[in-house]
From TrEMBL:
Organism: Flavobacterium ginsenosidimutans
Keyword Kinase among record annotations: no
Protein name as it appears in the record: Alpha/beta fold hydrolase
Residue ranges of domain AB hydrolase-1 in the record: 11-109
Any Pfam family the entry gives: Abhydrolase_1
Molecular function GO terms recorded: hydrolase activity
Domain of life, per lineage: Bacteria
Keyword presence, Hydrolase: yes
UniProtKB keywords: Hydrolase
C-alpha cells in the first residue's frame, strides 16, 4: 500500500508529486487545502519517498496503486491533483476510473510524449558513492558538479535520509529509474477521454505545455480550463504557491 499523509475532514482530495519528489513537497499547500475544507491525501508514489520499491515502474502500475489505495480507504468520489509525473498518473487515473474522479487538476505536464531530459540529474545522482559514507555536504558537492541550480539540488537532497547510523541513502529507487527511464515520457493513449471538469495549470516560463499542445489536451479533456502562472517555471506550485492555491481552490469550489 502506498505511503500517505491524511489530514482534514471533507471531500477527499488526492495530491501526487512529480519525478524524484515525495509527499513532503506538498506539505504546506496540503495544509491550505485542509483549511479550505478538504480531506487531503498526499501520496508517495511507488519507488518514491516512503512507499515501497518495485522493479515494475510504469504509469499503469502507479494508477493501479492509487486505485487500490482508494479502495482500501473507501474513497469513492475524489478530486485529484498531480504535478509533472504525478500529473500523468492523475490523467491516466481519471480517464480509466472516471466513476471515482469528480475533478482533475494537472500541474505543468501534458498528455503528449516527452523525450528524456533528466540525464544530468541522473548522472549526478549516480555519481554519489554512498559506500564511502559521505556527509550531506559531500553529497551536495558531488551533485553541484552536475546540477548547478541550487533549487533543484535542494529538491533532490530532500530525498536523503539516514538508512543506518552514519549511512545516508536516497529514498527513491534510483536503480529502477536508471533501467526504465523511458517510462516517464510515455503519452496518454489516444482513445482515453475524461469529460468532467479539468484544470491544467502551466508555468509561464516552463516549456512543458506549449500553446500548440492545447488542442491535443482538449481531445482528452474536453471540459478543459487552462491557466498560466506568469514568471513561474516547472515547479510552479513552489515558485508561486499563493497563485497556485487560489487557482486550484477556486476550481475545486466551483
Amino acid at each position: 500500500m502506498l505511503y500517505s499523509k491524511i489530514e482534514g475532514e471533507g471531500k477527499p482530495f488526492i495530491i501526487m508529486h512529480g519525478f524524484l519528489g515525495m509527499s513532503d513537497n506538498w506539505k504546506t499547500l496540503a495544509g491550505q487545502y485542509v483549511e479550505a475544507g478538504f480531506q487531503v491525501h498526499i501520496l508517495d508514489l511507488r519507488n518514491h519517498g516512503r512507499s515501497f520499491h518495485s522493479d515494475e515502474w510504469s504509469y499503469e502500475a502507479m494508477v493501479q496503486d492509487v486505485y487500490e489505495y482508494c479502495q482500501a480507504n473507501n474513497l469513492t468520489r475524489i478530486d485529484i491533483l498531480g504535478h509533472s509525473m504525478g500529473g500523468k498518473v492523475a490523467m491516466l487515473f481519471a480517464t480509466t476510473h472516471p466513476e471515482i474522479v469528480d475533478k482533475l487538476i494537472v500541474a505543468d505536464i501534458g498528455p503528449r510524449f516527452y523525450k528524456q531530459h533528466h540525464q544530468d540529474i541522473l548522472a549526478g545522482l549516480n555519481a554519489i558513492d554512498f559506500s564511502v559514507k559521505p556527509s550531506r555536504n559531500d553529497v551536495e558537492a558531488t551533485l553541484s558538479q552536475y546540477v548547478p541550480d541550487f533549487g533543484t539540488r535542494q529538491f533532490l537532497l530532500k530525498n536523503l535520509y539516514w538508512a543506518a547510523p552514519g549511512q545516508l541513502a536516497f529514498r527513491f529507487n534510483l536503480e529502477v529509474f536508471n533501467n526504465n527511464l523511458d517510462a516517464i515520457g510515455k503519452p496518454l493513449a489516444d482513445d482515453l477521454v475524461f469529460d468532467k471538469p479539468t484544470l491544467f495549470i502551466r508555468g509561464g516560463n516552463s516549456g512543458y505545455i506549449q500553446d500548440e499542445d492545447v488542442d491535443g489536451i482538449r481531445k482528452h479533456f474536453p471540459n478543459l480550463t487552462l491557466e498560466t502562472i506568469p514568471n513561474a517555471g516547472h515547479w510552479l506550485h513552489a515558485e508561486n504557491p499563493k497563485m497556485f492555491f487560489e487557482l486550484t481552490a477556486m476550481f475545486l469550489k466551483e
